[in-house]
Automatic annotation (TrEMBL):
It comes from the Eukaryota. This is Uncharacterized protein.
């Protein structure tokens, strides 16, 4: 799959098939797919129906959302968030893509903000999402909690 347009990159730790946490580079391409690279070589391709514009690492799924969570909530950079041209957000948990949210505009940037930076809170990260509009969305546990 050769695609000259790289939209975003991020590093993420995911469990491999033996359960060992491995560092990967996640690369978002402009033609509706992303790839996980290990030691510079592609090891997994993620197909999306729309171009992937934005990536970030963090912990986004928690047991209180009803999602199966593979990772302890205190872990960092163990899931990845993908934002696409259709306004959809997905979480890459292990090697599985889980729907997270649908926004009204194409996603241009995503950032994670750990709850513990706001005080003595624990749980999945907040998501700050920029779109191709004048609105910034803040999401937590698959729900929009604020816009600006």
């Amino acid at each position: 799959m050769s695609d000259p347009i790289i939209r975003d990159v991020c590093s993420v730790q995911l469990p491999d098939r033996h359960g060992l946490f491995t560092n990967y580079v996640l690369v978002a391409f402009g033609r509706g797919h992303a790839q996980l690279l290990s030691r510079g070589l592609p090891v997994h391709t993620i197909a999306l129906s729309s171009p992937c514009n934005a990536l970030c690492a963090g912990v986004f799924l928690g047991s209180s959302t009803g999602d199966k969570m593979r990772l302890p909530p205190s872990s960092r950079n163990l899931q990845a968030l993908l934002g696409d041209e259709a306004g959809r957000l997905f979480v890459l948990d292990g090697f599985e893509l889980v729907p997270y949210a649908q926004l009204d505009y194409p996603i241009t940037r995503v950032f994670s903000l750990p709850l513990r930076t706001l005080g003595s809170y624990d749980g999945p990260d907040l998501v700050i999402c920029a779109t191709r509009s004048d609105t910034i969305y803040i999401l937590h546990q698959k729900k929009i909690v604020a816009t600006h």
